[in-house]
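User: I'll paste a sequence; please echo it back and then give the predicted structure.

Assistant: Echoing your sequence first, then the prediction.
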Amino acid sequence: MDTDLLRQAAPFAETLGAEVLAASPEEVRLRLDWTPGRTTAGGAMHGGALMSLADMAGAVCAYLNLPDGGTGTTTIESKTNFLRALRGGHVEATARPLHIGRTTAVVDTELRDADGRLVARTTQTQVVLRD
């Protein structure tokens, strides 16, 4: 999966500004640049932008691990711990599967700044959709 395909499948990825760095069933990496329009008080990147990036990375990871008969996924639970503010550069989301089942997938996503420092960590559960 590349950035164009992600943006076609999930138009919000373009609105958000997410870029695909790598995508495989084992690991999905997305990037989001810091811009003034994505900030809150004090110039920190808005938590909603960070959570959206993590959700998107986790969703792609779950999708790439669909079990037989699965047609898609959707988030049913998400938990984010914010650990430091991001006031410049970019953030990279790395999503890895923790559990892939017939009905749900659980994905762990780390968000790191340009220096590799942990900015946030998200664990989410995706339900497997079927026609």
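The longest helix spans residues 47-64. The chain has a mean pLDDT of 96.
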